[in-house]
């Protein structure tokens, strides 16, 4: 078994201010990567800027990260960072800015590479990654992705059919045939752990009701998918079991949306534990099934992944472990869990054509199935709907 968690995490009020020296020690000039609005509204961006000013560290702000960030956005941010001479990156926000910050850090450290490099895994002798990123700090403002403690960076990219990729030499398929591509969400091939995570639950206060619920369900998915996973170990289950028990403490208040400071603290604890869990195991089928639903139906990620959780538990090959998860969450049956998720997220109808395509694409991609420890076929996946 292996336990590896290199990110230093502080969770406390005024976290950024209290640890400004450690933040400043990551480099000599920062690139701040964030979205347009939320980090300004909740005060996190001002806190980071004030901390850097206090430590006399110059910085540049890139505040154009969209939900489900694209490879193009990451390229723009990296170009800005390179022109400014940034040697470390600070991601502020939910999963989108934090994931983008990791990919940006990789491109800044490898300026001779284009964005295709993000999805090319290259290793040196001894199995170590041949290309490293500049240091990354993360300041989460949602309690969902756990990106502040994971090595993953999920980006939206255009995937082109094979026939397009065999165009004449010198042709740029992405520009010459844009109508033939389709969007998908995919993690970059490189693992980039943040060096520092500064977690302050005060930033959660401005979250909307739906934002809070959907990110909490993303946390729940991380915990369940990590626990029921081909890569799970006794060590990883220290995180997932504690996280599931923690999430259970707030599930009823989340349903009625009675969320105060204590509930935000619990949700953030569960979120970070979920991140630590999937850092060791990766996610599984609900995340794989959710990406086309997010891209094509426009559902928020947490809602898209959450609708697959009841079917995932219902169809899981080890019934004892599936019931163990329900017990940790304090649900008496699969039906009660399914009813809870439906009440929390509402009804979602996936068109048959999209569902059929989603199932077939998953079955055709061994990489997306490798974390599920049992044999899968079309009928078993279809029944998870």
Automatic annotation (TrEMBL):
InterPro entries: ADH_Fe/GldA, ADH_Fe_C, Alcohol_dehydrogenase_Fe
Source domain of life: Bacteria
EC number, UniProt record: 1.1.1.1
A GO term, aspect molecular function: alcohol dehydrogenase (NAD+) activity
Pfam families reported in the protein's UniProt record: ADH_Fe_C, Fe-ADH
Alphabetical keyword list: Oxidoreductase
KW Oxidoreductase (keyword) present: yes
First-level EC class: oxidoreductase
Boundaries of every Fe-containing alcohol dehydrogenase-like C-terminal domain copy: 213-361
Claim: Oxidoreductase is one of the keywords in the record: yes
Domain Alcohol dehydrogenase iron-type/glycerol dehydrogenase GldA: 6-157
PANTHER family: ALCOHOL DEHYDROGENASE, DEHYDROGENASE, PUTATIVE-RELATED
Protein name as catalogued: Iron-containing alcohol dehydrogenase
Organism: Candidatus Eisenbergiella merdipullorum
């Amino acid at each position: 078994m292996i336990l590896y968690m290199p990110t230093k995490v502080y969770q406390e009020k005024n976290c950024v201010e209290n640890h400004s020296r450690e933040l400043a020690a990551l480099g000599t000039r920062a690139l701040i990567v964030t979205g347009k609005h939320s980090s300004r509204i909740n005060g996190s961006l001002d806190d980071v800027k004030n901390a850097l000013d206090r430590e006399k560290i110059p910085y540049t702000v890139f505040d154009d990260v969209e939900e489900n960030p694209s490879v193009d956005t990451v390229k723009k941010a990296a170009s800005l960072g390179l022109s400014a001479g940034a040697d470390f990156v600070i991601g502020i926000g939910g999963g989108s800015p934090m994931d983008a910050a990791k990919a940006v850090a990789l491109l800044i450290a490898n300026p001779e590479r284009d964005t295709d490099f993000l999805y090319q895994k290259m290793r040196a002798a001894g199995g170590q990654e041949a290309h490293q990123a500049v240091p990354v700090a993360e300041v989460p403002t949602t309690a969902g992705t756990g990106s502040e403690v994971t090595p993953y960076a999920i980006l939206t990219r255009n995937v082109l059919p094979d026939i397009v990729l065999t165009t004449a030499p010198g042709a740029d398929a992405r520009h010459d045939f844009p109508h033939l591509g389709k969007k998908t969400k995919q993690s970059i091939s490189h693992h980039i752990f943040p060096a520092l995570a500064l977690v302050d639950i005060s930033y959660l206060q401005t979250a909307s009701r739906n934002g809070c619920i959907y990110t909490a369900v993303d946390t729940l998915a991380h915990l369940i998918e990590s626990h029921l996973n081909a890569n799970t170990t006794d060590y990883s289950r220290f995180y997932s079991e504690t996280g599931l028990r923690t999430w259970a403490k707030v599930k009823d208040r989340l349903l009625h949306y009675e969320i105060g400071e204590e509930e935000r603290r619990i949700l953030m604890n569960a979120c970070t534990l979920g991140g630590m869990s999937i850092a060791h195991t990766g996610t599984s089928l609900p995340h794989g099934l959710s990406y086309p639903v997010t891209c094509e139906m426009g559902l928020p990620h947490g809602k898209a992944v959450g609708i697959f959780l009841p079917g995932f538990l219902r169809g899981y090959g080890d019934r004892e472990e599936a019931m163990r998860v329900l017990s940790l969450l304090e649900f008496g049956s699969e039906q009660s869990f399914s009813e809870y998720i439906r009440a929390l997220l509402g009804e979602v109808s996936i068109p048959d054509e999209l569902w059929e395509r989603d199932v077939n694409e998953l079955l055709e991609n061994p990489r997306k199935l490798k974390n599920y420890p049992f044999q899968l076929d079309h009928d078993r996946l279809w029944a998870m709907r």
